[in-house]
Amino acid sequence: EAQVTQNPRYLITVTGKKLTVTCSQNMNHEYMSWYRQDPGLGLRQIYYSMNVEVTDKGDVPEGYKVSRKEKRNFPLILESPSPNQTSLYFCASSLYGGTQYFGPGTRLTVL
Amino acid sequence: KNEVEQSPQNLTAQEGEFITINCSYSVGISALHWLQQHPGGGIVSLFMLSSGKKKHGRLIATINIQEKHSSLHITASHPRDSAVYICAVSSTGNQFYFGTGTSLTVIP
Fold first, then answer.
1. Is B33 in Cβ contact with A98 (below 8 Å)?
2. CB pairs under 8 A between A and B
3. How many CB atoms lie within 10 A of CB A40?
4. With the C-alpha atoms ordered B83, B89, B94, B100, is the resulting torsion angle positive or negative?
5. Which one of A43, B21, B87, B105 is most buried, by most CB atoms within 10 A?
């Protein structure tokens, strides 16, 4: 089944404790992206990747890191999480210029 | 700065009504996307279009590139159409920008 998976789905952590949210797709898509969704602000792009070893900043990259060592994986790293990073996070992938397929979301709470 | 504006923010309709959600954007785009998000959070892509009109079942999406405007229409609305509808654009710079969504409730 074609899908985008994210793990974990729910995470509660404390300020400053490094964490990684994994994202994997099995559709051989070149384009992958991370978004956060906040009430009243909607979805905003954090980082995106056009292909392996190519990553670019989106609208709200501060406090986040990403890597794209393999085509299928695009982990999101929060090296020192803060409460303002409490949000619902989505990973998505697509063929270049194509329809986006979204993961199920990761609800992160930083205390 | 709001690259994508949607209206209305909230919409309540009676079952069977014709519904229109509007989207305007201010950046150069390679495509415009309509997304659906049900309670529980999952996001599904409904349409991707760069010109003209697309139809899928009771849903119709149109785009006017010159006016930088798109509409999503739902004909013969049904309670199962209740969801948040989100307009998004993929810019010519490969970034995505999103509207804040339209929350639709269809009452039986």
1. no
2. 54
3. 7
4. negative
5. B87
CA-based nearest distance A97→chain B, Å: 8
Give the tens place of pLDDT for each residue, A71-86.
999 999 999 999 999 9
Other beta carbons within 10 Å of B4: 24
Q: So what's the pLDDT on residue A5?
A: 97
Average pLDDT value over all residues in chain A: 96
User: What are the φ and ψ backbone dihedral angles of B38, each rounded to 5 degrees?
Assistant: -85, 160
**CA–CA distance from A76 to each of A30, A100, B78 (Å)?**
17, 18, 38
User: How far A81 CA sits from the closest chain B CA (Å)?
Assistant: 23
Q: Is some CB atom of chain B closer than 8 A to the CB atom of A45?
A: yes
